[in-house]
Amino acid sequence: MAFPEGFLWGGATAANQYEGAYLEDGKGLNTSDVLTAGSHTTPRRITWENPQTHETGSTGMGFGSPMEFPEGAVPAVIDGEYYPSHVATDFYHHYAEDIALMGEMGFKAFRLSMNWARIFPNGDDAEPNEAGLAFYDAVFDECAKHGIEPLVTLSHYETPLSLTINYGGWKSRKLVGFFERYAETVFRRYRGKVKYWLTFNEINLMSMAGFMAGGVTDTSEQARAQAAHHQFVASSLAVRAAHEISPDIRVGQMLAYQPAYALSCDPADQLLVQERSHATLWYADVQTGGAYPEYRLLEMKRKGIEVSMEPGDLELLSHYPADFLSFSCYGSTTLTTHESDAGAGNFVFGVKNPYLKTNAWGWATDPACLRLALNTLYDRYHKPLWIVENGIGWDDVKEADGSVHDSYRIDYLRENIASMRDAVTLDGVELMGYTMWGCIDLVSAGTGEMRKRYGFVYVDRDDEGQGTLARSKKDSFLWYKKVIASNGEDTE
């Protein structure tokens, strides 16, 4: 048998890219609600308003384009702009239909995020929004009907906007307490319905895009390091609360990870790979390993970064690390200290790898990346792993008869499943499950596009927000159904 009995096959989504209903039933605004659409060549923007002068404008996200707010301006929804998250692909009104499609494919797990501002509209509310809680009750009940285990991310680029405006986002220690209240509320509410939780999606994105990762508008390294520490503390408090509420609950970390190759055997290239790897792995060293690594402490000292910690913080991190490590991995990156052609991908930096094929967005398909990633992380942390994002964005074409022939997606997934199979069967890695990213078409986080599609199910929605939102199966739908039914044995 290629994969262990009980292996959790499924798919993954995020509320800000999928759920929609951005102001329905008492939901408040979150940071993604002020992000415009973009494209492969045009970065998304954050819109703002000056409450005193009513002047409006926009700035970059701080990732691929600089983020700078004029004095007195705050992030805001403004007239005349299109915001993809406001409707997204409308899971809010299609959840029963979508979960039924997942059940038809044979999903064992469905990764979704809860919209924090749907539960606590301002983030710092004393009491939760019952309508928001009831919605997720309905979602989890629907999952149970189809034998699907939810894997729930508490914060997936969805910091309540009020926490950014009033506190500066995760730069403020106060968010630790607000998050702890939120986590305890949902752990208790959904006890017996949800066993697996993640705290922060791709927590290491804080190094590159603080606004997305935690509503942080201060772009300094000092602010982002402080915000990351607050998220680490909040994660440990969530682990502690979960274990006290139910011994069955497991709370994991979610890391954005990609193997890094040196373009040449120049020692300088090898050192660059080590440096970039450290820039990612220190986040897991803290949240999953339970302590700040020495190399990170020395780096902060060299840069003059002084993270404010309260008494007991380090003990908390040590005593309540993540129960398992989940991660996203779409491909690898190639690095060099020499001049070379730039590469591209999902939050990817580096140069082109001459041995890999690329798609229209410049993404390279690496048939070995999952095996390499799994071995690196398992050897380092010796904890169960879960691949919670892996997939390929493509400009799928819907034919006149309604069919979508996405053989390229099947080819990509076949190679990646073979790679993780080798990690399990040849290397002995303990892998809990695999949730392919964007199982139902959704909005791209990086570009805000619809045409960069990931799913097994096509959603009739375009980059301008037009379409019926009707669902239809792609060729990959039946292929993945076969893969799950055979527990990964039949991928042809």
TrEMBL record:
Annotated GO CC locations: cytosol
Family annotation (PROSITE patterns): GLYCOSYL_HYDROL_F1_2
First-level EC class: hydrolase
Gene3D superfamilies: Glycosidases (3.20.20.80)
One BP annotation, GO: carbohydrate catabolic process
EC number(s) recorded for this UniProt protein: 3.2.1.86
Single Gene Ontology MF annotation: 6-phospho-beta-glucosidase activity
Keywords, in A-Z order: Glycosidase, Hydrolase
PANTHER family for this protein: 6-PHOSPHO-BETA-GLUCOSIDASE ASCB-RELATED (PTHR10353:SF122), GLYCOSYL HYDROLASE (PTHR10353)
Protein family according to the UniProt entry: Belongs to the glycosyl hydrolase 1 family.
Protein name (record): Glycoside hydrolase family 1
Annotated source species: Coriobacterium glomerans (strain ATCC 49209 / DSM 20642 / JCM 10262 / PW2)
